[in-house]
What we know:
Elements: E1 3-6, E2 9-17, E3 20-25, H1 37-44, E4 47-52, H2 69-82, E5 88-93, H3 95-106, E6 111-117, H4 131-141, H5 146-157, H6 160-163, H7 166-178, H8 183-194, E7 209-214, H9 223-231, E8 236-240, H10 247-250, H11 252-265
Parallel strand pairs: 3-4, 3-5, 5-6, 6-7, 7-8
Antiparallel strand pairs: 1-2, 2-4
Amino acid sequence: MTLAQVGEIELDYDRAGAGEPLLAIMGMSGTKVHWGQPFLESLRRDFELVVYDHRGVGSSSRLHGPLTIAQLAQDAARLLDALELHSAHVLGISMGGMVAQELALAHPEKIRTLTLGCTYCGGDGSALASQDVMSRLAEAMTSGDRQRAIRTAWEVNVSPAFADDHDAFARFLDLGLHNAVPVDVIMAQMQAIMGHNTAARLPSIALPTQVLHGTVDQMLPVQNARQIASLIPDARLEIFDHVGHLFFWERPEPSAELLRAHAAVHA
């Protein structure tokens, strides 16, 4: 556990690897280990990778009161300052992609390149998870059966084919059992997501941007990626066929290669 003082709170972070700095911003209900080791190890070969837990998660400061995406973006900016990183490549996935959008809008000088994965910007043409998916998650989360909750989360976050990968699920289950995010924090994160809308502001982003998404994403449908890529000038869109929300679990090496190539082009 390594803590950084970030304004009035502390954030638990890991910093490892060699190369240009890359800040990776995790999504709702995730922790800094939920990126999965294959993806983390691949990134650390070419980047000085910083991963961290949001406020309320893991050993970071406990959550007090409601959350906003802009607040989480300010946490990310202050973490870069605390680590004396004047700028970094930034990867944000899902809720973390929303945080990365707000970070890019508020502090573009801190970002070398921007990668937005499996995320959402709000506005016309965007879509959140279906009511059926949200009901399945809510029922599992409130069942009191931790293994059921993790299995349900797995099934709605990956493609049907990958959901049957027993070894991958065993790794995901182990992470979930040992790195649980409190339900009240997940609910606060969900409320923050519901209030997120950057659609009208995205055209002002003048950063090298790529957008990554899987075609069978149940949490945030792939139409969101097309919308975001159409709104950010010169954004590059990369679509993973037959891949779910956690594209970096299903395609860790191709995902890492896209980040390496994006950083190299805009070095």
